[in-house]
Design brief:
Largest sheet: 2 strands, antiparallel
Oligomer: single chain
Number of helices: 7
Strand order of the largest sheet: 1-2
Distance between the termini: 52 Å
Shape: globular
Radius of gyration: 18 Å
Helix content: 40-55%
Order of helices and strands: HHHHHEEHEEH
Number of strands: 4
Length: 197
């Protein structure tokens, strides 16, 4: 079993639970010749949710995974809006017209905090898909604390928003696929240089 949205782009997956965040963001459509948006319809969103929940339960290293209820159309639309906000928050730009109209008012998410002799623990809270959204935010926070979230990047190509995990030593990756997006950028730059000469 693999993360379905990320592996359809032939990418290596971010480590641990961060793979779920990457997969959620990769439910988008990339470029002009691309697989469909996996959250575009209730049927496709439910198929993705079933597969990703099964994968999450199988690899969960934080003890947060749980079976989630069936998606409703309201849930699907909320996930689309959340995906757009999360994408914009992580990468500084929106990948859809929908996101541009969302504004900056984020819904409030409330993790559960427990304090014990061993320290402080934050856990997702909420019902159904709100729990899922809170878990994704906490995974991003954990990745930020561990210094690995900075390795999750959106492809630098203007026509591609595929999210990849940069495994290069100096964290210098720019394209999700150097042969496709990187080559297009190099050809475009070459043509621009040739036109100015």
């Amino acid at each position: 079993m693999a993360w379905p949205a990320t592996t359809r782009y032939g990418l290596s997956v971010a480590p641990g639970n961060l793979g779920l965040v990457q997969d959620f963001l990769n439910t988008i459509t990339e470029g002009t010749i691309a697989p469909p948006d996996l959250l575009a319809t209730l049927t496709s969103a439910q198929e993705w949710a079933d597969r990703v929940t099964e994968q999450w339960i199988s690899i969960d290293d934080l003890g947060w995974a749980k079976t989630l209820p069936r998606l409703t159309e309201t849930d699907r639309k909320a996930l689309l809006a959340f995906r757009d906000r999360l994408f914009e928050g992580l990468f500084g730009h929106s990948h859809s017209e929908t996101a541009r109209g969302l504004g900056r008012n984020n819904p409030s998410y409330h993790p559960v905090m427990t304090v014990s002799a061993g320290g402080i623990e934050l856990r997702p809270d909420g019902e159904g898909w709100k729990y899922f959204e809170t878990a994704l935010l906490l995974m991003c926070h954990q990745g930020q604390l561990e210094g690995v979230l900075r390795r999750m990047k959106s492809c630098k190509s203007e026509t591609c928003d595929v999210v990849f995990y940069d495994r290069s030593n100096n964290n210098s990756g720019a394209w999700h696929d150097v042969k496709v997006c990187g080559n297009r950028a190099n050809v475009r730059a070459h043509r621009e240089r040739a036109a100015t000469n």
